[in-house]
């Protein structure tokens, strides 16, 4: 039987508890434990450690996928905030106290996402990257230095680490002579 506590993982063999502290960074004690074991128990403990590590990898992957699903479910609400605040004329006509409260709530959501590792893809003036951006419209320019740079963010994108949850929808400059 394998169980986990706040120290590390432990396994019960023939009524005796063996603490697998390698996961807690205490290799010497684990080596001492293995030294006193017969060869069958030694191999069993190695398999147990490998099994635990595999479970941890799958658990981490599951948490990443779950985090992505949660962020994806929040995106329509965040987009609604963005659209409401983008219409400056209508937004400025709303009662100042109410507007300040809504902006505060929006900032809390964005800060919360940032705290769990979500990055917003919303920079203009940078080179178009098809891994991060989806081009919606090309704007003709006579400035060659602006060729394939982002002119405007139509809809912000989001990513967690290197995984893009949603690419940013952008307008890009296209150089034409």
Can you give a write-up of this model?
The protein is an alpha+beta fold. Among the domains are: 61 residues, no CATH class; 61 residues, Head domain of nucleotide exchange factor GrpE (Nucleotide Exchange Factor Grpe, Chain A, domain 2), CATH 2.30.22. Helices cover 47% and strands 27% of the residues. The protein contains four helices and nine strands. The strands form three sheets. Strands 1-2-3 form a three-stranded antiparallel β-sheet, covered by helices on one side. The N terminus is likely disordered.
Task: Record the strand order, biggest sheet.
Answer: 1-2-3
Residue windows where pLDDT falls under 50 for at least 5 positions: 1-30
| Overall SS class | alpha+beta
CA distance, first residue to last residue: 73 Å
* Quaternary: single chain
Q: Tell me the helix content.
A: 40-55%
SSE topology string: EEEHHHHEEEEEE
The largest sheet is: 3 strands, antiparallel
Number of helices: 4
Average residue pLDDT: 77
Q: Give the tally of β-strands.
A: 9
Give the overall shape, derived from the CA principal axes: flat
Indicate the proportion of strand residues: 25-35%
Radius of gyration: 26 Å
